[in-house]
């Protein structure tokens, strides 16, 4: 979480509608894409959690209402907050306090829609808000759980819904659109892979078994054996079998034949089966072989 001393310029971002209407010249450079922007929002947060974050506490100004929760904790509602949901970061700014915060998406461990009562509101009716858990950069606790600050973004009652490009009537509420924007941008910033999340053997790329590591494994193309043909992936296949075995299944390649068993039928060349169930060379087929049935 990073403190902001000046308000973000909306014109410095590419609107999502414009971004989707054309192919960008580069997917790795250029201005961030603005997925959602709303003014005069409220931030609902417990006072003790607000005090635990100097960056968020800087948003607190005169337009702050409070109320007590069921646990006798003071819950605050900070008014007049502008919100930007960009492809780079999630931004909050208070024009009255001339302070804001920039929150990287990997720090948002959870976001969801919530129904709540806003402290200091004229009505006791519940409203819809975007609930968020934001990880703090403090050291992990004794139980290895990451410390988080919870807050809820409540849009202004007159916040307009985004008008669909095809002119149809909007089917989502502004808060649902805010949630969708945060979800889309969070997907652009997956959590980094932590040590131990994957097998140790995969840390430096795929690991392959060699003849020295495992008995009975050999690699084609080494020693006197010819290299595999294209597309064989290093195995003896129907495309390159004639380089290793003759028609009777005898090893004809240079060097010693592989010492491990190749499995039943390896190297055996069978004649095509005739319609009467016999081999075309006139020999009777094995009695245990399955016959084709109508």
Question: Keyphrases for this structure?
Answer:
294 residues, mainly beta, PH-domain like, ten-stranded mixed beta sheet, 4 helices, elongated, Regulator of volume decrease after cellular swelling-domain-containing protein
How would you sum up this structure, described in words?
Helices cover 10% and strands 24% of the residues. It is built from four helices and ten strands, in the order ββαβααβββββββα. The longest helix is centred in the middle third of the chain and has 14 residues, at 174-187.
Short overview:
The protein is mostly beta strands.
Instruction: Describe the largest sheet.
Output: 10 strands, mixed
Strand segment tally = 10
Please give the CATH class of the largest domain.
Answer: Mainly Beta
The assigned CATH architecture of the largest domain is: Roll
Task: Please give the share of residues in helix.
Answer: under 10%
Query: What is the count of structural domains?
Result: 2
pLDDT < 50 runs, ≥5 residues: 200-226, 228-232
Distance between the termini: 72 Å
Q: Determine the CATH superfamily of the largest domain.
A: Pleckstrin-homology domain (PH domain)/Phosphotyrosine-binding domain (PTB)
Mean pLDDT: 75
Strand content: 15-25%
Structural class, please? Answer: mainly beta
Give the radius of gyration. Answer: 33 Å
CATH topology of the largest domain: PH-domain like
């Amino acid at each position: 979480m990073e403190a902001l001393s000046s308000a973000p310029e909306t014109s410095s971002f590419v609107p999502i509608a414009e971004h989707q209407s054309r192919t960008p010249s580069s997917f790795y450079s250029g201005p961030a894409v603005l997925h959602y922007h709303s003014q005069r929002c409220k931030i609902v947060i417990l006072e003790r959690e607000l005090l635990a974050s100097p960056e968020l506490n800087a948003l607190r100004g005169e337009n702050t209402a409070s109320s007590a929760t069921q646990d006798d904790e003071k819950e605050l509602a900070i008014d007049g907050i502008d919100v930007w949901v960009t492809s780079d970061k999630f931004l909050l700014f208070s024009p009255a306090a001339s302070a804001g915060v920039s929150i990287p998406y990997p720090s948002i461990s959870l976001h969801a829609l919530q129904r709540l009562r806003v402290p200091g509101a004229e009505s006791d009716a519940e409203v819809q808000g975007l609930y968020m858990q934001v990880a703090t950069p403090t050291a992990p606790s004794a139980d290895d759980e990451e410390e988080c600050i919870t807050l809820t973004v409540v849009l202004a009652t007159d916040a307009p819904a985004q008008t669909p490009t095809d002119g149809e009537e909007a089917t989502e509420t502004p808060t649902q659109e805010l949630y969708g924007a945060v979800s889309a941008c969070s997907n652009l910033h997956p959590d980094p892979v932590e040590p131990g999340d994957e097998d140790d053997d995969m840390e430096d790329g795929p690991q392959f078994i060699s003849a020295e590591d495992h008995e009975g494994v050999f690699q084609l193309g080494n020693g006197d054996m010819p290299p595999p043909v294209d597309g064989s992936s290093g195995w003896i296949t129907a495309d390159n079998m004639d380089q290793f075995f003759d028609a009777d299944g005898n090893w004809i390649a240079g060097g010693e034949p592989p010492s491990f068993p190749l499995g039943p039928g390896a190297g055996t060349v069978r004649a095509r089966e005739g319609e009467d169930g016999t081999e075309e060379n006139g020999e009777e087929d094995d009695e245990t072989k399955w016959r084709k049935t109508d």
